[in-house]
Farnesyl-diphosphate synthase
Amino acid sequence: MTREDYQHRIEQFLDSVPLSSSSFISSSQLHEAMRYSALGGGKRVRPLLVYATGEALKINVDLLDLPAAAIELIHAYSLIHDDLPSMDDDALRRGKPTTHIAFDEATAILAGDALQTLAFQLLSNPVQGICAENQLKILNILAIASGPDGMVKGQSIDLAAVGKQLTEDELEIMHNHKTGALITASVEMATYCMETKEQANSEEIVKKRRSLTEYSQAIGLAFQVRDDILDIQSDTETLGKQQGSDIAAGKPTYPSIMGMSATKEKLFNLNKKALDSLIDFGEEADSLREIASFIVKRIA
Amino acid sequence: MTREDYQHRIEQFLDSVPLSSSSFISSSQLHEAMRYSALGGGKRVRPLLVYATGEALKINVDLLDLPAAAIELIHAYSLIHDDLPSMDDDALRRGKPTTHIAFDEATAILAGDALQTLAFQLLSNPVQGICAENQLKILNILAIASGPDGMVKGQSIDLAAVGKQLTEDELEIMHNHKTGALITASVEMATYCMETKEQANSEEIVKKRRSLTEYSQAIGLAFQVRDDILDIQSDTETLGKQQGSDIAAGKPTYPSIMGMSATKEKLFNLNKKALDSLIDFGEEADSLREIASFIVKRIA
């Protein structure tokens, strides 16, 4: 399937998730805020990675919808909370007012909280075709990647880094937590979408998982490097968020640390590293290769 | 074991949980805020219910630590977020400054986020003595109870209800979500802490689970009714939070809807209902009975 096919698939799947039953007084406000934040927009990079990894391992696509949706819900929750006034204080996201602007701050916090819970709820429902051990592993990967040693830690470092001069290594540690952890989790979760524990831990899959993890680490960082370039070279309308906002907020970026030319070279090298990691795969990994190119070349 | 034994046990267990590894710049700030909010205080009612339910079903206490800790982490996260300026705007909790006062708002939001994730992370680690199917079920119970159809929905209703006149039924729906869902989940999670799926779904356990759920629903509501009474009759120092804050915030309470005398009668009836639900249990349910009395008589 093409990238557009998968984007369409996850859009429809997310739309079908009962984001919350609406009843009594205005809990429908919560419901609306959850849908507003999770639906209708975004590149869906993390679900794309789940599906493309599934393709590379010839996994039935139906088994991938729940992990793809769960990780996108975690991403959506993190965006809502990151945009809050006490955090990055952003007014625009995906070309629309951020959730706390479109609704209010309390509703935005609650909608983020609820989207996080919903991700784990989805992954803990029994499913056909994935054993309970593998399901627990998938859930554990997502929890570790998004929690206090993963994404949340990255955001915490990010807030503390405002106005500071970081080294390239420090910047990389920040991004590896803030963005990289979920990108790697997308790939790793997909490698456990199998019927038995033995399949998921077979020699063949363990070897492939290692290559896929390397791939994901390279594109995770490439994604952020490209983001930093776009923050300078793109415009607000194309980005769907405020152009130049990182620099305006005094956040360290690759161009500010190493200059634009070295930043572009770094991006090129990360792309090469990602493709090299897939050397043992045939055309079944073409979707993963396409995502790597997309991340490097994307304009928004 | 006594209530104090269990309170001590959960305190020590929570203290041993790696709330987040600390390294690099100030993610130790996040770590400190998580510990500040989760440790050293609170009645630990939800963990007590996990342990006491385990006693009633003669479950090995070692199997109960993780669910007990996970549900307390969810409770701790909800308190941090509920106290935020855009929500209930409370400055005092458990006799200490609330997390956003002791740290800052961004750190409080992130610490809450991370505590929620950590709860699911703990429950998705493989454990000896509980099969993966039962673990998934335990996790699913917690997710449903705390998410957009449970606790978060309750908080959303609560915010929308400020300054409105609710009926007794409406108030009950609010509390059943906001507080009741997690109290019931504490009891239900414990009933799945078993080696096999067959044990957890045996006729005997299914029947007992039904009685225990009835018990938990009665004490969940009793807990809130007692809270409303204390909000009027206690004082700030004893409560560890601002006395009269519900009334000051224009929140509907049982005494404001039905008067103090009828509220006390309601509390008495709920306590009776809780004890009646345990009629088929012997002395192995004495801890549950003691918790019911504690909830009705507590002064803070």
About this structure: Strands of chain A lie at 92-93, 96-97. Residues 22-26 of chain A have pLDDT under 50 and may be disordered.
